[in-house]
Amino acid sequence: MFSRIGLIANLSKAIVREGVHVCRRELLSRGIQPLLGEGLARELSLEGPTVKVEEMGENVDAVITLGGDGTFLRGARLVAGYGVPLLGINLGSLGFLAEVRYEEIGEAIDMLAEGNYHLEKRRRVTASVIRDGETVCEVTALNDAVLNMGSTPRVLDLEVTVGETSVGRYLADGLIVATPTGSTAYSLSAGGPIVDPSVDALVVTPICPHSLAVRPLLIDHHHLLEIRLHDCPDGLLSADGQVSHHVETGDRIVYRRAHDPAYIIRLPKRDFFQIVQEKLRWGGTPRSFNEGRDGGDLGEGNDLAP
After folding, report:
1. CA distance linking residue 136 with residue 90, whole number of Å
2. Is 161:167 a contact under the CB 8 Å cutoff?
């Protein structure tokens, strides 16, 4: 049973303001104390307990994010290391991580109050930049750690190494290293596979490679994955599109599974593949199977051509 739930919201979306009020009211009516960040409470002129948003993880039992997947990823970053689970209210456009709709807020909070949910452990990825033998920065992501051209509009010369083996050296606009959670984000748009979140692996997807022979890779997390930058004058390594660091020629980027996973609250209404079908229109029934000549079941003599 959750007794105190933090609220994190993206107020750039007009409907979010109303969503925060609804969510707060629904929590209070079920005896659950909502805890807002100081800035959010001040912006909405709300009274009640507040906390510095950076200290949210050590003061709540769970977090509800209101916005889109970007807001969910921000929430996951804020509570990283505390084992605090997150539930996303989708007030954005797509919503793979923030799956609860606005009209489902009351029902979702009922399920939380009744314990009618389960927790999914989602692995995160850490990318370490090594320069002249020293680690100069690290980023950790729930979705993906992306290497791209930065402010320089030119291709990168990079080499992918798995363990002791060089998989290949090629020119590309960049490289996406995604978790299974992030397989439906940028990696998917770049031609990567959809991966069941329970799979413990990394997805390596090149961005516009200058070779037809380069394809995405699915790598077991036990293998050491390394990117060597042979020509990268002003590259950028970003985590979930929220934290970034500059990289340069000669750097090595080493990827490994992060020690601390994220925990996502899943409600019994839909699972991962139902969400994929809903969000991507994946696996839709062919029109011919819904349109028999006489409007009834398809049988002998029906034309199956589209």
Report:
1. 36
2. yes
In this structure, which topology does domain 4-122+261-280 adopt according to CATH?
Rossmann fold (3.40.50)
Enumerate the domain spans of the chain. 4-122+261-280, 125-257
Catalytic residue list contains 69: yes
| Model pTM score | 0.87
Provide the CATH number for the domain formed by 125-257 in this structure. 2.60.200.30
274 C-beta neighbours (distance < 10 Å), count? 12
Q: What is the 3-state secondary structure (H, E, C) of the chain?
A: CCCEEEEEECCCCHHHHHHHHHHHHHHHHCCCEEEEEHHHHHHHCCCCCEECHHHHHHCCCEEEEEECHHHHHHHHHHCCCCCCEEEEEECCCCCCCCCECHHHHHHHHHHHHHCCCEEEEECCEEEEEEECCEEEEEEEECCEEEEECCCCCCCEEEEEEECCEEEEEEEECEEEEECCHHHHCHHHHCCCCCCCCCCCEEEEEEECCCCCCCCCEEEECCCCEEEEEEECCCEEEEECCCEEEEECCCCEEEEEECCCCEEEEECCCCCHHHHHHHHHCCCCCCHHHHCCCCCCCCCCCCCCCC
**Position 278 pLDDT exceeds 70:** yes
pLDDT, tens only, 192-217 = 999 999 899 999 999 999 988 899 99
User: pLDDT for 111-149, tens place per residue?
Assistant: 999 999 999 999 999 999 999 999 999 999 999 999 999
The count of other CB atoms within 10 Å of the CB of residue 280 is 14
Active-site entry in 61, 69, 220, 303: 69
**Radius of gyration of the chain from Cα atoms?**
22
Q: What is the residue whose two structure tokens read 């996406």?
A: 176
